[in-house]
């Protein structure tokens, strides 16, 4: 699949730009504005480097070693040493999409003309993205302050033709080999370039942008799952009426309730027990309060998106070049606190939305609470266990999500001989959020799987025999069945069905199935 290049340097990148490069392998190109801005900033660095007066980041050491003046003949070695020593990551490889997002966001800052990078160095970073060359970045190494130093250093190392990378086909090889195969030459970093390449919040920001996109889709899918559960548990849709939501005007709540109402519209199951004979006074909280929980989650995601938008418009480096005044200034903009806080907040969101989803699922399995369905939705209860252990899997994941909801950003371990004495741990917050998003995906997928089985049982047995589910929920049941997930019957190997449902949720197929029949959800 070919993609239009993403232009870097004509203003802030959009989240869609980040997704195109990170996930869809779109190439990038530096704009004329970026080329001019890079040139202006570089001239300032060259002038300061030629001065007798030491300038931090140009002619001095770094961090706690900033008091040493570095003579001009050692400055190239200074940059090499900086990148080599800081490329100290450990642990498993970070995902390709995260590294590509990190590289793009660093390039975006370089293109602002506030870092002092040379054009040829910035262009090589763009070329790596365009050729699909992805440096190997390790899980551990960033404290989320002074930028994501270790992850970015592994990327900078590749520009020097050192370290390991994966090519466009995912093959692991030395960076020098990959560059040569792509017709690219490594660069010898000049004054200030080492810092310019490694001093940013790009890793944690990239993971935030990816998580926001995933959570927006997941929260709409959670509305679908909740609607399926309300319907199959003979709940009422009256509590989702807009006039009730207006009494508490949180925007996310109104959107979620509207989605639930739309998904339940024209449901024969809901209509079958809507009359005066219904003895249900109130549904359980996990059904009735779904819009309040899902809506609060939505509002939190949008707050995080506001923070991400501000960060996408930022130029994060230290020291920073102010070309109009021909000077470099130290600053603290590399501190990851603004990003770290919302990353942690989103992990709380993921845990709680998963928690209410698991509670809705559990109600299906308890004969005392599922309103006439067989225990555990089993074909022959006692011989068969039905979805008993699917709920165990949900519970195990929810428990893990609660642990992941403990904030990383409240921790700080001093580093660099106490020069860097308060750090954000934003990278750690981002890494655990990725696990949280995956866990939420799995929990919602199990609810969809269980609710679909319950709907099939509901329309084939008992008081609702022969009635039809709503067009929206019926579309999800059909999707599962057409994807090879069988309907109710004797016990069978359940794990493959769970994994298939997870993929249908993760890919957006469940959401698409609904929107094809009732239009776009909010």
Automatic annotation (TrEMBL):
Pfam families found in the cross-reference section: Lyase_aromatic
User: What GO biological process, any one, is recorded here?
Assistant: L-histidine catabolic process to glutamate and formate
EC numbers for this chain: 4.3.1.3
What is the catalytic activity of this protein? Answer: L-histidine = trans-urocanate + NH4(+)
**Pathway given in the UniProt record:** Amino-acid degradation; L-histidine degradation into L-glutamate; N-formimidoyl-L-glutamate from L-histidine: step 1/3
For this record, the Gene Ontology CC terms, alphabetical, are: cytoplasm
Q: Which PROSITE patterns does UniProt cross-reference here?
A: PAL_HISTIDASE (PS00488)
Ordered alphabetically, the record's keywords are: Histidine metabolism, Lyase
Where is it located? Cytoplasm
What GO molecular function annotations does the UniProt record carry, in alphabetical order?
A: histidine ammonia-lyase activity
Annotated family: Belongs to the PAL/histidase family.
Under which name does UniProt file this protein?
Histidine ammonia-lyase
Organism of this sequence: Nocardioides panaciterrulae
Its lineage reads: Bacteria, Bacillati, Actinomycetota, Actinomycetes, Propionibacteriales
């Amino acid at each position: 699949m070919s993609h239009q290049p993403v232009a870097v340097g004509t203003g802030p990148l959009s989240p869609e730009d980040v997704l195109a490069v990170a996930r869809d392998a779109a190439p990038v190109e530096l704009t004329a504005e970026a080329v001019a801005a890079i040139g202006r900033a570089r001239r300032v660095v060259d002038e300061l480097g030629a001065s007798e007066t030491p300038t931090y980041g140009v002619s001095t050491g770094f961090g706690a070693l900033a008091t040493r003046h570095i003579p001009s003949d050692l400055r190239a070695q200074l940059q090499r040493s900086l990148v080599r020593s800081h490329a100290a990551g450990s642990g498993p490889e970070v995902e390709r999409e995260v590294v590509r997002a990190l590289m793009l966001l660093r390039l975006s800052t370089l293109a602002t003309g506030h870092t002092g990078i040379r054009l040829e160095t910035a262009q090589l970073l763009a070329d790596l993205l365009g050729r699909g060359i992805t440096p190997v970045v390790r899980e551990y190494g960033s404290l989320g302050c002074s930028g994501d130093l270790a992850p970015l250093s592994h990327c900078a190392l590749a520009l020097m033709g050192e370290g390991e990378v994966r090519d466009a086909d995912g093959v692991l090889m030395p960076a020098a080999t990959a560059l040569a195969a792509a017709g690219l030459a490594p660069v010898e970093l000049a004054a200030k370039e080492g810092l310019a390449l490694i001093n940013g919040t790009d890793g944690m920001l990239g993971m935030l942008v990816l998580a926001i996109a995933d959570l927006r889709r997941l929260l709409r899918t959670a509305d679908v799952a909740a609607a399926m559960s309300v319907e199959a548990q003979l709940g009422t849709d009256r509590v989702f009426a807009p006039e009730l939501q207006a009494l508490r005007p949180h925007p996310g709540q109104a959107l979620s309730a509207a989605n639930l109402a739309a998904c339940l519209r024209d449901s024969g199951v809901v209509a079958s027990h809507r009359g005066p004979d219904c003895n249900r006074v109130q549904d359980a909280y996990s059904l009735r309060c779904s819009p309040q929980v899902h809506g609060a989650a939505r509002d939190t995601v949008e707050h995080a998106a506001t923070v991400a938008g501000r960060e996408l418009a930022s130029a994060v480096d230290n020291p920073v070049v102010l070309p109009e005044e021909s000077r470099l200034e130290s600053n603290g903009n590399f501190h990851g606190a603004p990003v770290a806080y919302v990353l942690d907040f989103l992990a709380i969101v993921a845990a709680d939305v998963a928690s209410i989803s698991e509670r809705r699922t559990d109600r299906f399995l308890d004969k005392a609470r599922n309103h006439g369905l067989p225990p555990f939705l089993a074909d022959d209860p006692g011989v068969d266990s039905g979805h008993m252990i699917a709920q165990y899997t949900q519970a195990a994941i929810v428990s893990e999500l609660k642990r992941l909801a403990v904030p990383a950003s409240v921790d700080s371990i001093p580093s660099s001989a106490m020069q860097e004495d308060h750090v954000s741990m934003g990278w750690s917050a981002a890494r655990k959020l990725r696990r949280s998003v995956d866990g939420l995906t799995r929990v919602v997928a199990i609810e969809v799987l269980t609710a679909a089985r319950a709907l099939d049982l509901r329309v084939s047995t008992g008081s609702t025999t022969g009635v039809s589910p709503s067009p929206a929920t019926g579309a999800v049941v059909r999707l599962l069945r057409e994807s090879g997930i069988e309907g109710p019957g004797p016990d069978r190997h359940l794990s493959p069905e769970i994994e298939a449902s997870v993929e249908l949720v993760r890919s957006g197929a469940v959401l698409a199935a609904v929107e094809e029949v009732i239009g776009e959800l909010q």
